[in-house]
Amino acid sequence: MMKSPQQELYDYVFLQSMKKGYDTYDHLPMASENVGYPFVTLENMNLVPITTKTSIGAEINLTVNVWGNQDQRLVIDTMASSLLMIASTGFKTADYRYRGRMTGSDYQIIQDTSVPDTVLNHAVVNLKFNLV
């Protein structure tokens, strides 16, 4: 069965993150999974169809999160910057071709205090691609 353009892009970015040596998950790990910092999660995606006279393309946005403890600000920034670069090139998967869009891609680093008595460094990386 052929994957959707979103799923193939998701799988591609997941694999690129793993190739960079990052512990990567498709969900925020539960406490029972005993995952150490830093780690990456791939989360929200959306696809916006773009039609022309001769074809149907799409803009696909993917949110990637990088999580680290309070001492890993530099590590988180380096990882987020590295993941942002995935949107700097074009590539082909088994069934689709994508063009990364640095314009519209970005990342920010915030301090997360949602876990009691814990300060986490959290990078939110927004990647933008065109299906061509």
List the helices and strands and how they pair.
Elements: H1 5-19, E1 24-25, E2 39-51, E3 56-69, H2 73-84, E4 90-92, E5 97-100, E6 106-112, E7 120-131
Parallel strand pairs: 1-2
Antiparallel strand pairs: 2-3, 3-7, 4-5, 5-7, 6-7
InterPro entries: Viral_Tail_Comp_sf
Protein name: DUF3168 domain-containing protein
Organism: Limosilactobacillus fermentum NB-22
The SSE order reads HEEEHEEEE
The termini sit apart by 21 Å
The chain-level mean pLDDT equals: 95
Unreliably modeled segments: none
Fold-level CATH name: STM4215-like
Give the helix tally: 2
Tally the beta strands.
7
Beta-strand percent range: 35-45%
Number of structurally distinct domains: 1
Assigned CATH architecture: 2-Layer Sandwich
- State Rg: 16 Å
From the spread of the alpha carbons, the general shape counts as elongated
The percent range for helix content is: 10-25%
CATH class: Alpha Beta
Structural class: alpha+beta
Protein name: DUF3168 domain-containing protein
Task: Please provide a written account of the structure.
- InterPro entries: Viral_Tail_Comp_sf.
- This is DUF3168 domain-containing protein.
- There is one protein chain.
- The mean pLDDT is 95.
- The chain has helices at 5-19, 73-84, and strands at 24-25, 39-51, 56-69, 90-92, 97-100, 106-112, 120-131.
- The protein has a single domain (3-129), classed as STM4215-like.
- The protein is of the alpha+beta class.
- The radius of gyration is 16 Å and the shape is elongated.
- Strands 1, 2, 3, 4, 5, 6 and 7 form a seven-stranded mixed sheet that branches.
